[in-house]
Write a structure and sequence with these properties.
This protein is of the alpha/beta class and 188 residues long. It contains 3 helices and 11 strands; from the N terminus they run E-E-E-H-E-H-E-E-E-H-E-E-E-E. The protein has helices spanning 22-39, 55-63, 115-125; strands spanning 3-5, 8-11, 14-20, 46-51, 70-80, 85-93, 103-111, 131-139, 152-156, 162-163, 179-185. A 6-stranded mixed beta sheet has the order 6-5-4-7-8-9, sandwiched between helices. Strand 4, helix 2 and strand 5 form a beta-alpha-beta unit. It is globular, with a radius of gyration of 17 Å. The protein binds inosinic acid and magnesium ion. Magnesium ion binds at residues 50, 53, 109.
Amino acid sequence: MPELKNGKLIIEDDVFIPFIEEDRLQERITEMGKEISRDYEGKSPIFIGVLNGAFIFLSDLVKNVDIDCEIDFFKLSSYGDAKISSGKVTLVKELNCDVNGRHIIIVEDIVDSGLSIKFIEEHIAYYSPASMKVVSLLVKPKSLKYNVKIDYIGFDIPSEFVIGYGLDYAQKYRNLRSIYILENHKSE
Ligand code: IMP
Ligand code: MG
């Protein structure tokens, strides 16, 4: 685990500071679960989590949903730097459920440019679901480059790199219970 100094995480040359604490995350996710349960009353939606980042959020979200639902996963791979996406995505794991005629809720950890969501929506639309909505814990509104609609948003955040609660930096730190944001360069 990274070095901790006054609550800040020091990771190589970067300093991350606490941004959304565990309690605030859980409080907001409880509200989101209730809202989705109300909106989908009498329906049995399929939650499709986008691996790997969404696994913790999806888990906490569905614990706060009190209607019948199913769960499946979709995995994309994007190539590029640890902190900057390459702008290219490919499918790594296909769905294992039949989405035809079903109500689909895509679950993302974070929407940055919107490319991943756009790719997934186009892919799923091909199988003619009854409806399709997107829920994302975090959205960086100023980074959006594609025309995508996020139906349920946990938090709008600045266009800075964040880690924890499923979100990684070079595949690590997903297991942090709160979300941390990149503050500055250690030597600055
Ligand atoms: P998009 O395709 O540009 O919207 O990027 C979405 C994906 O990029 C997310 O599913 C994350 O995997 C990753 N990502 C974007 N911003 C961050 C961040 O601040 N921290 C960690 N991963 C991020
Ligand atoms: Mg992701």
